[in-house]
Amino acid sequence: MGSLMEFKCPNCDASIHFDSGAQKMKCPYCGTELEISALKAYDDVLRKEKPAGENWEKEAGSDWQPGEKEGMVIYSCKSCGGEILVDKNTAATSCPFCGNTVIMPKELAGDLRPDWVVPFKYDKNSAKEALRRHMAGKKLLPKVFKDENHIDEIKGLYVPFWLYDCTADAHMRYQGATYRSWSDGSYNYRERQVYAITREGTLDFHNVPVDGSSNMPDELMESIEPYDFKEAVDFQAAYLAGYLASRYDEDAETGKAKVNKRIQASTTASFDATVRGFSEVTVQNRTINLIHGKVRYALLPVWMLNTTWRGARYTFVMNGQSGKFAGDLPVDQGAYWRWFGMLFGIVAVVAFIAAKMFL
C-alpha cells in the first residue's frame, strides 16, 4: 500500500497517473489500472490521525496529514510568481500562467489540504479539438492565425477554488408607477398612480465558486462555469498524478469580497424580477444580509492552452469536467473595417430610402 501512495505501478514500478477517460489510476507503460478506492483505506487512516480539536465545519480545508506530502513538490515561477503543486515525478517545463521556462522547485509547506476535488473528464485531445471549434466560423479571425496557429503548450491544471454556502436574507422596497390616458372630447387626461412595493425573503446559495489564484483571470474562470459539484469527491492526492495543481495565494477571507458581490447581484436580480406590471419602477431601499456562511476548499479541473502569434500570447481555457471553452482571439483589422464599412453603407441606404418615403 505504501508504494501506491507514491503513485508507482505495482506491475512495472513506473509512475502512474489518473486517467480521465477510465476514471482510474493507470500506468502509461504496461496499462495496469487501479481503482481510486484502492487508495482510500490509507487516506482514511490519515484522517483519523488529524490533530485533536480540528473542526472542518468552521474552516475550509485542513492541514496535510503525516506522510501525505511526501513525493509532492512546489514549482515557483520567477517570472510571474505563480506556484504549482505536482508530484515529484512530474517534469514541469514551463509555467502554465506566463510560459516562462525557468522554474525552480521547493518543498511543499503551509497550505491547507483541499476538502474536495472534481476529477478531469476530458483529455488533452478534447482540449485541442475544442480550440479548433472555437476558431471555426469566426469571420473577423485572421485567416493566417488559423492556418499558422500552433499550440505552444497544453496543461491540465487543478485550480484552487473557494466554494461558499450561505443564505441571503433580503428586504427590498420599491416605488412603482402606472399611467393611464383618456379624452372626453374637450380635454385630454393623464393619470399617474403610485404604489409602495415591498419584497422580502431568503435565497439559499450553495457552492458559489471563487478562484483562489491571482494568476488566473477571474473572467476566464467565470466564463467556463458551471461545475457539477455532485461529482466532487473527497480529496485524495492520487488525483493529482499526471496533472499540475495551482496553490492558492488568495485566502477564503479575500474571496469573500468577490462572492459577496456575486451573491448580492444574483439576489437583487431575482427580487427585481418579481416587480412586474408597472410603467416605471424606482428602487427605494435594498438590504441584503448574508447569513449561515460556510466555505470549502476545492481543486477544479482546467485545461490551459497557450499559443503565440505575432509576438502576442493568447491563453484559452477549458472546463475539464464539462468541456466548456473560452478565450480571446485576434481580430483581422482589415476585415473589421470592411465589415464596418459595409454595415455603415447598409444603414445609410436604409436611412435614405426612409427619408424619401416621408418627403
Please explain how this structure is put together.
The strands form two sheets. Strands 4, 5, 6, 7, 8, 9, 10, 11, 12, 13 and 14 form an eleven-stranded mixed β-sheet that branches. Strands 1-2-3 form a three-stranded antiparallel β-sheet, with no helix packed on it. It contains seven helices and 14 strands. It is α+β, with helices and mostly antiparallel strands. The longest helix has 26 residues, at 333-358. 24% of the residues lie in helices and 35% in strands. It has a domain at 1-49.
Map the helices and strands.
Elements: H1 2-5, E1 17-19, E2 24-26, E3 33-34, H2 37-48, E4 72-77, E5 83-87, E6 103-107, E7 116-117, H3 124-135, H4 143-148, E8 153-183, E9 188-211, H5 218-223, E10 233-234, E11 244-246, H6 252-272, E12 280-309, E13 312-319, E14 325-327, H7 333-358
Parallel strand pairs: 7-12, 8-11
Antiparallel strand pairs: 1-2, 2-3, 4-5, 4-6, 5-11, 7-10, 8-9, 8-12, 12-13, 13-14
Q: Could you describe the largest sheet, including whether it forms a barrel?
A: 11 strands, mixed
Shape: elongated
First and last CA, distance: 90 Å
Total DSSP helices: 7
Encode the helix/strand succession as letters.
HEEEHEEEEHHEEHEEHEEEH
Given helix and strand content, the structural type is: alpha+beta
Overall pLDDT score: 76
Residue runs with pLDDT of under 50 for 5 or more positions: 1-6, 48-58, 89-93, 101-109, 332-341
- In percent, how much strand structure appears in the residues? 35-45%
Tally of extended strands?
14
The radius of gyration is: 27 Å
How much helix is in the residues?
10-25%
